[in-house]
Amino acid sequence: MKKVLAAGVALMAVTAAAEDFPEPGLYKITGQVSSKMMPVAQTTETQECIKENQFIDNPEAWMQQQPGQECDLISYDVAGGNISMEMSCTLDQGGTARMVGSGSYSSSSFKLKNKMTIEAHGMNMEVNTDVTGQRTGSC
Predict the structure, then answer these.
(1) Using a CB cutoff of 8 Å and minimum separation of 24, what contacts does 59-65 make?
(2) H or E stretch at 83
(3) 67 Cβ partners below 8 Å, 6+ apart?
(4) Among 3-12, 32-41, 87-96, which stretch is predicted with the lowest mean pLDDT?
(5) Distance of CA 8 to CAs 39, 59, 132, Å?
(6) Is the separation of the CB atoms in 8 and 114 below 8 Å?
(7) What does the domain layout of the chain look like in residue ranges?
(8) What is the mean pLDDT of residues 69-77?
(9) What pTM, to 2 d.p., does this model score?
(10) What dihedral do alpha carbons 93, 72, 3, 50 form, nearest 10°?
């Protein structure tokens, strides 16, 4: 589940690098992961320093650095404060995952919703994530 949330945050950060939005700084990031297979949604809250050019401009290269998966970016569009993306991954432990996400951003915040469908070991699972980030100051 942490990998799903990390992927969403990282793709949002890649967007920031591409257009210089959101502004670099310290962000309070809240993520909620839910699934029919989880009795209760899991919420995490972290603080992360997002620096200018911290993340590379190419989301595919970032995804290849993630252990336990090999991903291909199917679509990625950033324009006018909106983002949409779709990627497909092959998991090292067997199976596939497909993520579709959309969101919005401003100079001091971002929101991203992802739906991931995982097929592994004869089972199907859908995982939804909601990620928000709010700039709280300088790093």
Answers:
(1) 59/10, 59/11, 59/14, 59/85, 59/87, 62/10, 62/11, 62/14, 63/7, 63/87, 63/89
(2) strand 82-91
(3) 92
(4) 3-12
(5) 22, 11, 10
(6) yes
(7) 2-137
(8) 81
(9) 0.70
(10) 150
